[in-house]
């Protein structure tokens, strides 16, 4: 079986496009941007993987051409497939893709409506290849969007920590619970890594190896702790809930341990089991028990759980005037958590005098799956071409949606006092887009440290 056949990694209609450009077309130049959306700046992340996994090296072979020829003749019932075009790449370029890709540094935070990547063919005969690669390259939307939303949530949590607690605790405030809720292992890998640009807590193990494989490191960029699931509690039987909890404290003698506590009655678990039966064990323990509610209306359940734990196990008041549970106990909410819920829960806690120090969040589907290309309106459009030897600007400007207007000409991304700006390539100013791929070669690779540094939140 042939893996990652680039000839098959595109939309069907692109197979017929080589015959649709004007006669004499020798260059197609396209760019990638976020046309706005939920957040007004986006993290650029994930192109490095797409290049390494799908584009780098001699990716066109005789066997791949044969496979594509057979598949496309069945698919279209005619010979639309541009065999000569691909054989030209195989023979003239030893199977290496004759395109140049320039892109923002991985982890860079770019305001929407700016160019983040450009691509053009480097061989005039291969004008058709630029946009053939759109389908694959636009998949960068996913890593960018996960990293962007995770970073926006970091801003929200930081605001509450600054107001009510200790911002130093930010790294473990949003834990990735999303592995099971994504459509594929590849998505878990990319999304899991994207989240770790901003935070250090994850249960999505695939994201860790993704970072090692594609950001050339042996480092481990995410951490977790022993934690219960319902089966490990409920298998003890309803009458033995306290024994199941005691076992957690006995098995994991010190450090952090998380226990999902809503199997039967989360309020009874907090007030009576954790709060009375196991109170001494918890308070004498060298570590922190993390109680996890997992049902109900998140902001109400979280507040009530924290109040019960506070009443029974104790709390203090910090320098900012907010209550913090004794250090032996914390709460993690992982049910019904999304961008809005986190703000609601923290606001409700603050209104009742509780510090954000007391809680962390788990986020699954909403972190890795409940987002799409329109969350940040990512698009890839042709902005320049050479036809019959003449350079021309190319653009669309639909009267039915001015938001879909595209940029014109060859572009660059420059830095200004206020941030980034997209200007004509011929304008003054240093281009922040970096050549990352040319003619089959990867020209630049970022370390995960660099990615994290580029995306860091400056206050
Ligand atoms: N993990 C912190 C460590 C992880 C999890 C993973 C779905 C954890 C739970 C916890 O404390 O409770 C996938 C649901 C939960």
Number of strands: 18
**CATH architecture group name of the largest domain:** Alpha-Beta Barrel
Count of the separate structural domains = 2
Order of neighbouring strands in the sheet with most strands: 14-13-1-5-3-17-18
Indicate the percent of residues in helices.
Answer: 25-40%
CATH superfamily of the largest domain: Aldolase class I
Query: Structural class of the helix and strand makeup?
Result: alpha+beta
Coarse morphology: elongated
Summarize the structure.
By secondary structure, the protein is an alpha+beta fold. 36% of the residues lie in helices and 20% in strands. It has helices at 47-55, 62-76, 83-92, 129-132, 134-138, 140-164, 185-195, 205-214, 230-234, 241-251, 266-277, 279-284, 298-313, 339-351, 365-368, 448-455; strands at residues 25-34, 41-43, 99-103, 109-111, 115-121, 174-176, 255-260, 287-292, 315-317, 323-325, 329-333, 359-363, 378-387, 390-393, 411-416, 419-424, 434-438, 441-442.
Written overview of the protein:
The structure is a single chain. The chain is about 35% helix and about 20% strand. The chain is of the alpha+beta class and about 450 residues long. It has 2 domains: about 5-140 and about 390-445, nicotinate phosphoribosyltransferase; about 145-370, TIM Barrel (Alpha-Beta Barrel), CATH 3.20.20. The strands form 5 sheets. Strands 14-13-1-5-3-17-18 form a 7-stranded antiparallel beta sheet. A 5-stranded parallel beta sheet has the order 6-12-11-8-7. Helix 6 packs parallel to helix 7 and helix 11 runs parallel beside helix 13 (about 300-315). The longest helix has 25 residues, at about 140-165. The model has no long low-confidence stretch (mean pLDDT about 100).
């Amino acid at each position: 079986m042939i893996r990652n056949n680039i000839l098959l990694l595109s939309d069907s209609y692109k197979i017929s496009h080589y015959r649709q450009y004007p006669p004499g077309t020798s260059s197609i130049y396209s760019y990638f941007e976020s046309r706005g959306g939920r957040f007004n700046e986006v993290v650029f992340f994930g192109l490095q993987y797409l290049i390494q996994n799908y584009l780098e090296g001699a990716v066109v072979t005789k066997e791949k051409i044969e496979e594509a020829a057979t598949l496309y003749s069945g698919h279209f019932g005619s010979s639309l497939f541009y065999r000569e075009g691909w054989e030209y790449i195989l023979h003239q370029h030893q199977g290496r893709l004759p395109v140049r890709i320039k892109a923002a540094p991985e982890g860079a935070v770019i305001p929407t409506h700016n160019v983040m990547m450009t691509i053009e063919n480097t061989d005039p005969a291969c004008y058709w290849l630029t946009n053939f690669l759109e389908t694959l390259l636009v998949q960068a939307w996913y890593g960018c969007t996960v990293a962007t939303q995770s970073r926006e949530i970091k801003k929200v949590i930081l605001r509450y920590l600054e107001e009510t607690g200790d911002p130093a605790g930010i790294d473990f405030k949003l834990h990735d619970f999303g592995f099971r809720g994504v459509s594929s292992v590849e998505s878990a890998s990319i999304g899991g890594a994207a989240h770790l640009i901003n935070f250090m807590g994850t249960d999505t193990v695939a994201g860790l190896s993704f970072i090692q494989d594609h950001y050339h490191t042996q480092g481990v960029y995410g951490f977790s702790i022993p934690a219960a699931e319902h089966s490990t509690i409920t298998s003890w039987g309803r009458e033995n809930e306290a024994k199941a909890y005691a076992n957690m404290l006995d098995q994991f003698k010190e450090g952090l341990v998380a226990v999902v506590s809503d199997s039967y009655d989360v309020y009874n678990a907090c007030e009576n089991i954790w709060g009375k039966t196991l109170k001494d064990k918890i308070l004498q323990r060298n570590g922190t028990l993390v109680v996890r509610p997992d049902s109900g209306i998140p902001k109400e359940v979280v507040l009530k759980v924290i109040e019960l734990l506070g009443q029974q196990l104790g709390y203090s008041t910090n320098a900012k005037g907010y209550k913090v549970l004794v250090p032996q106990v914390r709460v993690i909410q992982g049910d019904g958590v999304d961008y809005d819920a986190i703000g609601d829960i923290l606001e409700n806690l603050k209104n009742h005098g509780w510090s954000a120090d007391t809680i962390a969040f788990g986020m699954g589907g909403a972190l890795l799956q409940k987002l799409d290309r329109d969350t940040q309106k990512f698009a890839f459009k042709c902005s320049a071409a050479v036809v019959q030897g003449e350079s021309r600007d190319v653009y669309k400007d639909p009267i039915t949606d001015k938001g879909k207007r595209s940029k014109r000409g060859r572009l660059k991304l420059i830095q200004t006092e206020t941030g980034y700006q997209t200007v004509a390539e011929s304008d003054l100013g240093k281009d922040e887009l970096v050549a990352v791929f040319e003619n089959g070669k990867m020209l630049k690779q970022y370390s995960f440290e660099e990615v994290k540094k580029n995306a860091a939140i400056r206050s």
